[in-house]
Design brief:
The complex is a heterodimer.
Chain A: H1 5-16, H2 19-25, H3 27-49, H4 52-92, H5 99-111, H6 114-130, H7 137-168, H8 171-178, H9 183-194, H10 197-225, H11 239-243, H12 246-258, H13 273-300
Helix pairs in contact in A: 3-13, 4-7, 4-10, 6-7, 6-10, 7-10, 10-13, 12-13
Chain B: H1 2-28, H2 40-43, H3 53-66, H4 71-100, H5 104-145, H6 150-167, H7 172-196, H8 199-206, H9 215-224, H10 228-244, H11 247-254, H12 285-297, H13 300-319, H14 325-334, H15 338-370
Helix pairs in contact in B: 1-15, 3-4, 5-9, 5-10, 6-7, 8-13, 9-13, 10-12, 13-14, 13-15, 14-15
The chains are: A mainly alpha, B mainly alpha.
Chain lengths: ~300, ~375
C-alpha cells in the first residue's frame, strides 16, 4: 500500500550515484535546484550592486517572508490534520449530528474570499498591538501566519478527508482493524503518514506558493493603504511591505519603461535593483513552486 | 440539490444576522476622535502659519533666541507641532467620513460601485473560464503531439549550428530560425512571468504605459495575473490527462473514433475548434475526454470564484483607484467606519454565495444527463 514509485527510483539512483540522472529524471528536484540557484545568484548580485542599507532590508524581508510562510504552512497542516481527524471521529462516534455545525462553519469560511478574512485578521492585529498584547515583530509575524494558517488549513482538511475516505473503503483498512490495531493509529500512521506522505508533501508545496502570494498581497495592501494608528516601522518588513515602499514602487514603474528598450533595460539590473529584486523573488518563487508541485505529481503519480 | 440550496440560504441568513448584530454594536459606540495635545496652543496663534516655511523658521529662531540652551527641546516642539498638524488633518477627514456614515446618498454610491464590481467579476469569470479551457486543451494536445519545448528546440538548433559551422554548410535560414526561437522563448517567458506575477506588480510595471484606473486594465489583470489562470488551467489539464488514461478511450479508438492529435488533418483536430465557446470535436476521442473532464471541472468553479474575487479585491485595493468598491472597503477600515466595512464584506459574500448556488445548479443539471433513468 505504501507509495513505492518514488522510493524505488531513488533507491536505483543511490546505487549508481548518478546525480545528473536524478536531475534529468525528476522535475521536482530540478526545480528545487533552479530555485535555490536563482536565489543565490540574486543574493550575490544584490550583495555586489545594491546599496548596503537596501541589501540589509531586502535580506530581512526575505527571511521574515519565508519564516512567516513556513509558520503558516505548519499552522495550516496542524489545523487541517486535526480538523480532518476530528470530523472522522465525530462521524464514527455517538454524536453524528455534531459534524453538521462544523461542516456549516467550514463551508461558511470557504465562501468568504481569503483576502477579506486576512483583512479582518489585520484589524485584530492592530487592536492587539494597540492594547500592547503583541509587542515584538516576531509575535506579529506569528499572528499573521496563524491567521493565514486557519484559512489555508481547509485545503489540508480536504486532502485528509479524501485520503481517509479513499482508504476506509478498501480491505486494507478493515484487515488492520481485524488485526486489533487502534483506529487512530491506522488513520494517523498507516493512512496519512505512510501511505499519503507524497500527497501531503505535494499539498504543502502548492500551499507554500499560495501563502507567499497571500502574505505579500496583504502586506502590500496594508502598507499602501492602511496602518494609520500603528506605525509601519513596528511591523516586520516582508517582501510585500518592501515592495510598497516608494523607491521600490518607482523601480517597478521603471520596468514598464525600460523592458522594451534594449539599449536601456540593463539599467534595471543596476539602478532599480531593490524593487526589481523583490518582484523577481515573489514571481520566481511562485513559478518554481508551481513547477515543483507539478514535478511531484508526475513523480509520484498523484 | 434542495439540501445544498438550504445550506447556502442558511449560511447567508447566519452571516446576515451576525453582521447585523455587529453593526448594531458598532453604531452604539459613539467614538468621536480627539487630539488633546499641548501643541494646540501654538497652532491657535493667528499670527503664525505653520504651513508657511518662513513662519516656521522664524518661530524656530525666536525659540532659539529666547531659550538658547534648549535647542533640542525647541526642535522637538516644532516636530510635535508638525505632527499635530498632520493629525488634525487626518482627524478632520475621519470626522467627515464618520458624519457621512451610511447615508442614503453614500448607500446609492456604494450600490453603484457594487454593481460595477459584479459586472467586472462576471466578465472576468466567464473570460477566465474560457481561457482556462483553451490553455488546458492546447497543453493537452501539445503533450499528445509530444511537442518539444522552445528551449529544447533552441539547444538542439545551437548544437546543429555548431556542426554546420564545422562542416561549412551554414545557411542564413538557420540563424533566422534561432533568432525566431529566441523571440519565442523571450515572449513565452514574459507571458509566464505575467501569469504568475501578483496583480500589483504587473499593474505598477505597466502603469506608465496604460491607464491603470480603467475597467479594461482591471479586467485584463483579473484574468491573467495572480497565477489563478495558470493554476486552474493546470487543474483542467490534469482532469483531461486523467480521463485520457481511462479504458473507454482505448475501446473507442478500437471502435474507430478519430484519435490523431495533429492539427487540421482528416482524423486530427481542427485548430479553430479549440477557440469556439461551445467546444465540440465531432467524431474525435477528444470530444469525450473533454466532456467528461469538463463535468469534473464544474465544482472547482466554486473555489475559483472565491479566488477570483480575492484577486479583484487585491487589484482594486493595491491600485488605490477611487470610486471602486474595494477602495471604499480599504478606506472604511482605515477610518474605522466598520458599518460600511460590514456592508461591503456582506456584499462580497453574497456574490460568492450566488456563484456557488449557480455552480451547484449547473452541476446538478449536468449530472442529470449522466443519470440512468
Amino acid at each position: 500500500m505504501i507509495m513505492k514509485v518514488g522510493s524505488m527510483k531513488i533507491a536505483n539512483i543511490n546505487r549508481g550515484y548518478n546525480y545528473f540522472a536524478v536531475i534529468q529524471q525528476r522535475k521536482d528536484i530540478r526545480w528545487w535546484i533552479v530555485w535555490f540557484c536563482g536565489m543565490m545568484l540574486l543574493w550575490l548580485w544584490d550583495f555586489n550592486f545594491l546599496a548596503p542599507l537596501s541589501f540589509q532590508l531586502l535580506s530581512t524581508a526575505i527571511v521574515y517572508t519565508f519564516v512567516g510562510a513556513s509558520c503558516a504552512v505548519i499552522f495550516s497542516l496542524t489545523f487541517g490534520w486535526l480538523l480532518g481527524m476530528g470530523m472522522y471521529f465525530l462521524e464514527q462516534g455517538k454524536y453524528k449530528n455534531g459534524k453538521l455545525p462544523v461542516l456549516f462553519f467550514l463551508n461558511l469560511i470557504r465562501s468568504i474570499p481569503q483576502i477579506v478574512l486576512l483583512l479582518i485578521g489585520y484589524i485584530l492585529l492592530t487592536s492587539l498591538i494597540r492594547n500592547q498584547i503583541l509587542q515584538t515583530q516576531f509575535e506579529q509575524l506569528i499572528w499573521m501566519a496563524f491567521v493565514i494558517g486557519i484559512f489555508c488549513s481547509l485545503e489540508i482538511y480536504d486532502l485528509v478527508r479524501e485520503r481517509i475516505s479513499h482508504f476506509t473503503k478498501s480491505d486494507y483498512f478493515h484487515a488492520m482493524l481485524c488485526c486489533g490495531m487502534k483506529e487512530s493509529r491506522i488513520i494517523n500512521i498507516e493512512i496519512l503518514w505512510k501511505s499519503s506522505l507524497s500527497h501531503v508533501l505535494h499539498k504543502i508545496v502548492s500551499l507554500f506558493g499560495t501563502i507567499i502570494l497571500l502574505q505579500c498581497s496583504i502586506d502590500f495592501i496594508i502598507s499602501v493603504g492602511l496602518s494609520q494608528d500603528v506605525s509601519l516601522s513596528n511591523f516586520p518588513v516582508t517582501l510585500g511591505s518592501l515592495l510598497a515602499k516608494l523607491d521600490s514602487k518607482q523601480d517597478i514603474l521603471a520596468v514598464g519603461t525600460y523592458l522594451f528598450d534594449p539599449w536601456q533595460n540593463y539599467q534595471l539590473l543596476f539602478m532599480h535593483l531593490q524593487g526589481v529584486s523583490v518582484a523577481f523573488i515573489i514571481v520566481f518563487t511562485l513559478i518554481c513552486f508551481f513547477q515543483i508541485a507539478d514535478g511531484m505529481v508526475k513523480q509520484f503519480d498523484l | 440539490m434542495r439540501q445544498h440550496i438550504l445550506d447556502h440560504a442558511l449560511s447567508i441568513l447566519f452571516v446576515f444576522v451576525v453582521f447585523s448584530i455587529f453593526m448594531f454594536i458598532e453604531q452604539s459606540y459613539d467614538e468621536t476622535p480627539t487630539l488633546g495635545e499641548s501643541s494646540e496652543f501654538w497652532l491657535q496663534q493667528k499670527t503664525l502659519d505653520f504651513s508657511n516655511p518662513l513662519h516656521k523658521s522664524l518661530f524656530n529662531e525666536s525659540l532659539n533666541l529666547f531659550y538658547p540652551h534648549n535647542r533640542a527641546a525647541n526642535d522637538s516642539l516644532l516636530n510635535s507641532i508638525d505632527s499635530h498638524r498632520i493629525n488634525r488633518m487626518k482627524l478632520s477627514l475621519e470626522t467627515q467620513r464618520l458624519k457621512r456614515g451610511l447615508s442614503w446618498e453614500f448607500s446609492l454610491d456604494l450600490l453603484r460601485m457594487y454593481i460595477s464590481f459584479i459586472g467586472i467579476f462576471i466578465f472576468v469569470l466567464f473570460a477566465s473560464y474560457y481561457a482556462t479551457q483553451v490553455f488546458a486543451i492546447i497543453s493537452f494536445i501539445f503533450y499528445k503531439q509530444q511537442a518539444s519545448s522552445f528551449l529544447k528546440l533552441f539547444f538542439q538548433s545551437i548544437k546543429s549550428l555548431g556542426s554546420e559551422l564545422k562542416n561549412g554548410t551554414l545557411h542564413w535560414r538557420k540563424i533566422l530560425e534561432i533568432l525566431f526561437l529566441l523571440v519565442k522563448i523571450f515572449s513565452t517567458g514574459l507571458f509566464y512571468l505575467i501569469l504568475f506575477a501578483p496583480a500589483y506588480v504587473v499593474a505598477y510595471s505597466f502603469k506608465s504605459s496604460f491607464e491603470s484606473g480603467g475597467y479594461v486594465f482591471m479586467i485584463i489583470l483579473g484574468i491573467f495575473s495572480n497565477g489563478i489562470l495558470i493554476n486552474y488551467a493546470y487543474k483542467f489539464y490534469t482532469f483531461l490527462m486523467h480521463e485520457s488514461r481511462k479504458g473507454y478511450v482505448e475501446t473507442s479508438i478500437v471502435k474507430g473514433l478519430k484519435s490523431s492529435y495533429k492539427w487540421n488533418v482528416y482524423d486530427g483536430i481542427p485548430f479553430r475548434s479549440i477557440f469556439h465557446i461551445r467546444k465540440t470535436f465531432p467524431g474525435h476521442i477528444l470530444h469525450h475526454i473533454y466532456t467528461n473532464a469538463h463535468y469534473q471541472y464544474i465544482p472547482t468553479l466554486k473555489h475559483y470564484a472565491s479566488l477570483l474575487i480575492t484577486g479583484l479585491v487585491i487589484i482594486e485595493m493595491a491600485l488605490n483607484i477611487q470610486g471602486h468598491l474595494c477602495y471604499e472597503l480599504l478606506q472604511s477600515i482605515l477610518f474605522k467606519q466598520y458599518d460600511v466595512t460590514l456592508v461591503i464584506i456582506f456584499g462580497i459574500f453574497l456574490i460568492v454565495k450566488t456563484t456557488e448556488i449557480c455552480v451547484d445548479l449547473w452541476y446538478d443539471h449536468e449530472s442529470r444527463k449522466y443519470e440512468n433513468s
